[in-house]
Design goal:
109 residues; mainly alpha; 4 helices; rod-shaped; phosphatidylinositol-4,5-bisphosphate binding
């Protein structure tokens, strides 16, 4: 019986360690994606090719930003499964950075 208890305790320790590591990874993914959102938004907003004449009110396209950030879709889904609060924060930042258009679809999968 003691052996079964020891195995169960060891398994619980491994599960807790996995959860801690996964949450730490989600934190790093979150911090990285915040930087990437801001950088990509800056590229779009400061692109001289996107600036039209002042008479033409047209919002810049964010398709290049969306295409670039699509590569991180799997990481955002992992974050959604592991840390729902951080995922919601990530969605809020993503939507705040690109208010001029539709969300980048990171939060709708």
């Amino acid at each position: 019986m003691n052996n079964i208890t020891a195995v169960a305790a060891a398994s619980d320790d491994k599960v807790e360690q996995y959860k801690r590591n996964a949450q730490q990874f989600c934190k790093r993914v979150y911090e990285f994606l915040i930087v990437m959102f801001k950088y990509q938004a800056g590229l779009i907003l400061n692109d001289k090719n996107n600036i039209k004449s002042r008479n033409e009110l047209k919002l810049p396209s964010h398709s290049s930003m969306e295409k670039y950030l699509e590569r991180y879709c799997g990481l955002t889904l992992f974050t959604k499964e592991i840390d729902a609060v951080r995922y919601q924060q990530l969605c809020a930042v993503e939507q705040a950075i690109s208010p001029w258009s539709t969300p980048l679809q990171l939060c709708t999968v």
